[in-house]
Each structure stands twice: as C-alpha cells, then as structure tokens.
Design a protein that fits this description.
The protein has 209 residues and is of the alpha+beta class. It has nine helices and five strands, in the order αααααααβββαββα.
Length: 209
Amino acid sequence: MSTKSRSRSKVRLSRALGVALTPKAARYLEKRPYGPGQHGRTKRKADSDYAVRLREKQRLRAQYGLREAQLRIVFAEARRQRGLTGENLVELLEMRLDALVLRAGFARTTSQARQMVVHRHIMVDGQRVDRPSFRVKEGQTIHVHERSEGMEPFQVAAAGGHAQVLPPVPPYLDVQLDRLQARLVRRPQRAEVPVVADVQLVVEYYAAR
C-alpha cells in the first residue's frame, strides 16, 4: 500500500471511529465531524450494546496500532494484575516502546514511532531495541542512536517540530527533547494517558467473548 493510500485509510478509519489517529485525520474530523461514506451524515438507529463495546475496543486498538491478537494478550495480562482491568490495560499499552517514542515527541504518529523502532534507531539504556512491543520499565531511558540523530525526522523532532500536533508530554515521562532522550519516571496512570476510549466497555467486550 502506498503512503498516500495508507494516509487515506487512516483518515477513513478515524472518521468511522470518531477519533483522530493522525494529525491529518484530526484536520479532516474538524471539517467533517461525521462518519465516512454517502450515509455518513444521516442519523443512524441506536447501536446495540455489542456494537458500542466493539467500537470502543476498535478505538483503543487503532490508537495503538495493534492487531487483535496483540491486544488480547495484553488484556489477559491486565486481568491478572491487581486493580481495575481497564486501567491496567491502558497503562500496560502505554509502556510499549513505540507508544513512549510518540509521547516523548520523537515521532509524529504511532506508525512513524513504530518504524523508528523497527529500523533500530531507538535505544533503551544504551541497547538497541527493534521491538515496538518492548515493555519499558520504570527508570529506563529511551534515546535515539547517535548515528541517527542527524537524520531529518529526528532533527525536526529535536527542534520541537511535532509540538503543535501532539498532546503535551505526560507527567510520567521526563523528556529532554533537544537531546532526543526521555526517561520513564513511573508507571503511567490511566487518567494521564491521552487515549480516547471507554476502557470499561473494552473490558465488557472481552468478558462477553
């Protein structure tokens, strides 16, 4: 799929789910705050309980760019932990390396953050990590490899080029953007994570499966 086609697909998915998955999608949602397609503006009948839960699950999945199997694995882990399963789920997802690369402002989108990791530009405590799903631990430092720092995407990031399209850096991250470095200070808390989803409905969706 070409870059243009992927971008169009993200915009369409964003409109269907009612949540911006990319900065471009955010602009489209401002202009067209309704679903895609010829029936997007028409008022639909009320969704079933199942459809509402499914949409919330799809929203969460899309914002982290996960496959269904990946989300199920993390959900199973969240359910085994103490506390509320929905909150645990988001907190575990937020500790993924690609998610933190995005939150730190190194990347513009989740897809770009994942690509940076896969292409071995990102290090954790001095070691290259090429798995986007890598779980960053409290106190660990994420930084860009010195050989990659001069690349245009990272130069743009270091200059704060994504500040206008990304949420503010959350308090669980200590970021030195000019050095392309960020440290996970502590475990994220659900209320601090800039993700749009009713996690209780996500839990109900999986509980009914």
